# Entry
Amino acid sequence: MMESCFGKAAVSGVMGFGMGGLFGMFMASMSYDTPFHTPGAPGSAPQSITSLPLRQQLKVGFKDMGSRSYSTAKNFGLVGLMFAGIECGIEGYRAKNDMFNGTAAGCLTGGILARSGGPTAVAGGCAAFAAFSAAIDAWLRQPKDED
# Structure
């Protein structure tokens, strides 16, 4: 499964989705911008969340946490799927396993993800993802200290 680019991309997408879900859940639990009120009927004033019974407060909180967690999971899964697939394709095309593959894949992934923001956003996304990928690759490829 991990020999094919499709398999690598699929596994990375699933793992990214899982990690993104956990990260999103953690970040939602630490967030201070959760709604302090629940929307009422159209035209009526929103009800303060602290005036609701505990069960209702928990329902609102968990619903918010679930939607944030799912959103982050989708984003992490997409990034993992795209990056792994592009990097594997570049590695297969070049028939080399070096830092250039990850850096180029980072640039392409960042550019594709930022495409709706225009050319400046594409360039920024490319540069940011490429720099991050190069830094992680350099750190992972450094020789191990075996004392």
